[in-house]
Amino acid sequence: MEDDKVAEAAIQIFRNTGHKIETDLPQIRSTLIPILHQKAKRGTPHQAKQAVHCIHAIFTNKEVQLAQIFEPLSRSLNADVPEQLITPLVSLGHISMLAPDQFASPMKSVVANFIVKDLLMNDRSTGEKNGKLWSPDEEVSPEVLAKVQAIKLLVRWLLGMKNNQSKSANSTLRLLSAMLVSEGDLTEQKRISKSDMSRLRLAAGSAIMKLAQEPCYHEIITPEQFQLCALVINDECYQVRQIFAQKLHKALVKLLLPLEYMAIFALCAKDPVKERRAHARQCLLKNISIRREYIKQNPMATEKLLSLLPEYVVPYMIHLLAHDPDFTRSQDVDQLRDIKECLWFMLEVLMTKNENNSHAFMKKMAENIKLTRDAQSPDETKTNEKLYTVCDVALCVINSKSALCNADSPKDPVLPMKFFTQPEKDFCNDKSYISEETRVLLLTGKPKPTGVLGAVNKPLSATGRKPYVRTTGTETGSNINVNSELNPSTGNRSREQSSEATETGISENEENPVRIISVTPVKNIDPVKNKVKNF
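The chain above was modelled as a monomer; its predicted structure follows.
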């Protein structure tokens, strides 16, 4: 089994077809077991994964077999030799996911003492300071590859447990949030390279998204943590945006993620690369189509509809945009244009058809939100004002695009309590939060001044990230990998025309900061060092 690909494929075949080996083919069984153990301990990461799953699938004494792998690997972990860590971390993660009753508890001490304190919270090597935001896989340092696998191990461990009784999920989510707040430099020692930081931001955002697929963890993800995860789709690194969007679409299209995660695609209106916007639009079309078809074929109760009906993405989108770190002044016309672009990016696809009077339903949702408060900061006047302003921009767009929205909504929308308070009795909010002049400016589509596109590479108040300049460079070919199969979006024509010239020959992944932005971390995000104290 010298060829890695052949070995991996052979193990997968045994995993899928070898259920009778133990009883019918004892000779093969006795030969196969040591090979699987060897691959789980010292094979490639893919071989290790397949070997663990194969043992779990075809052997009756799998507890004994997995323990014989888990115990020596967990005792021999050494962060000083990161190149020898990757396969053990893969095996340990999959073992704890497949057999949580047996390994969840011993894994907790491994997580606390090694994964977090020894590996993730230390930088043993110094990254190359070449300014690149992304490097090919073969150039990523072993230490960072090990850290990425450590983050995946945390997720697999939690997915195996499927409960938060020990509060380990809360601690993990705080750690992942800290990774995003610190831009991927968890230790904040500035020893890690920009490209390695990009890898770790992607790993952290993907991990939160993976945990959100398990209901017991989705419930404890705070709005702030959801927003940090969402903003990865506006990362300064093209490849981070691209891979994160692909992962997001893959989970949504399988109906694995809660509906609010579809709202993240609205932020793609800010992407400076035309093909990225086109890809996001295609993802929205596909996801909305799948959800509508599923509802038609599966009649369901109202509470189930809340998680599937695509129109119910509107409240999540409004709340997400109200907390966009770029949206700092609720009367700034340029910022409101960005908000309008993001809203229309989603609403255009939703409003293609007026199924079941959906236009009036979406209008009613925006109106109802104005009767609530922002559950994230219910007593902060500025926060609520921003929320109501986004509602008014949404109403402005819906009213201008559809004459059908003025009909009575067939049903009263239910708003998510995690994001909005219950409407107060006798509370009336008929104030208009955007002036008539601003309304006209938003609807006429007057082009923005050159160079203002919103902060595509967000100077996130959440992550403290600097913007980057889209400059002419020589690395476009290696840094921008465009999916040529997708047709450009038909929406946002004026925006695309104004930005198309600057999209040619750009080299996004070079570090060219324009200005230093002083930022205030998102409220309720503790200092990075405090994130690991409860593991």
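The mean pLDDT is 83.
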